[in-house]
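Record type: ASSEMBLY
Status: queued
Input:
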Amino acid sequence: MPPGGGFALPRLDGIPKSYPALANEATAAEVACTLLRTGIAKPERWAQANGSATEFVRATLDDWLDRHGRATVERNFYLDVAFTDRADPQSWRDGEGWAGLQRLYISVEVESAGYVVFGPTLRLLEKVHPRLPATFYQQFVGSVERWVRVYDYRDGLERVDQIKEWLAGEPEAEYEMPDVEHAIPARAKRRLLSDQTLRRMASQSRSSERKRLLQGLLTLVEKANQTARPAADEDIYGQLQDNNPAVPALLAVFERSDAIEGCFDEDAQTMLEASPEPNVILPLNGRDMASVASAFEKLAAMTQTLAAASTLIELMPGNERTEGARE
Amino acid sequence: MAKMTKLQETVLEELGAIAEGRSESAQDQMVGRFLKCEDWQRASQVVQRGLSAEERNRQPAFLSPPPGWLPPLT
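Status: finished
Output:
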C-alpha cells in the first residue's frame, strides 16, 4: 500500500536518549556506594550532584584527579580519564555483551599529543659524559611508555619502512622520503650508563641545571617503576579488535620541526580513521572494594609518573611552557 | 575500615535506593526538566499540532486491487 500524504515522523523507540559512560543510574549508584565505602568518594559531594549517581561518580573521579597531581600532568599531557562500562568509551554496546558491574573500567584517552624537544638537553648532558644523553633519552621515554604511548624516532623509522614498501609496489610514484635517520643525533644512540652511575652523576653534578635534570630523571624512573600498566586481557582485546592503535600522548623530537615531527604530522592524518584504543584501561569490579582500590592505586602510579615527566619537561631547555604545547 | 559518619550513611542509603530502583528521582527529574524548559514544551506543541493536522488533512487514496484480488478490508 502506498504511503498516505503528509509527513512521516521518525520513530525514536528504543533509541537511547543519552550515551552515559556507565549503563544507567542504578549501575552508577552501585559504583558510587563502593567508592564511598573505600573512602575514594567524599559524601559532601552528593549534595552537589543533584541526586544523580552518574554525576556523583564523575565528580568523584574529578576530585580524585585534582588531589593526585592533575594540575601538573595537564601542563604537558592532554588526557581524558573516565569511568566506563566498556573498554572503548567511544563505542556503544547496546546491552549485548555487557558483563555488568563485575566488569567496569577506568580508561585514559588522549585528547591531543604533548610535545617534548630533547636536542638542547642532550647537548648539555654530553658535556658531563658522552653516554649520558642516550641514557637520559631512553630512560625518559621508557618510563613514560610504561603508561602512555610516546611517538618518537622509532615510529618515524617505521613510517619510512612503510613508505619504502609502498614505493616498491608503486615504482612510478614520487614521494619525498623523510630523513629520520639523519634527525637522530649520534649522542642519542650510544650505549647506556648503568643506574648506579646515573645516580652517582646526579648526586655529584656541579652544575645546578644538570643536577636538577638528572634528579628529575631519577624521580621519573622511580615513579614509573612502582607499577606498570596492566596488560590487556582477552575480553579487552575482543572489544578493541576493530580499533586503531592508541593515539600517542607525547611526541618526542630532537629538534622542532625535524623529520620525526614531519612523520608524526603525516601519521596523525589517519590516527582517528577508526576509534583509537585508550592508552590505559584499568579493569575493575564495581562491587568489590579491593578491586576498586587497586584500580585507583594503579591510576595514582600513572598520574605520579606523568606528573614527574611533566615537571622534567619544564626543566629541559628548549621546552618553555608557552611554546611547549602543540596541537 | 574507618567508622562511617552519619552523612556517609545517609548518602549510602540514598544511593542504595537508586541502585535498587526504589528512588523516583529519575522520573521526578524528567518531569521537572520538562516543566522548566520552555523550548521543550514548545517543541512538544509543534509535534502535537503537526500530528493533529496530519490527522485532519489525510485523504487516503486507495488503489484498485490487482485483478482477481479481493478489495482490502478497512
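Annotation: The mean pLDDT of chain B is 77.
Annotation: The helical segments of chain B are 6-19, 25-36, 38-57.
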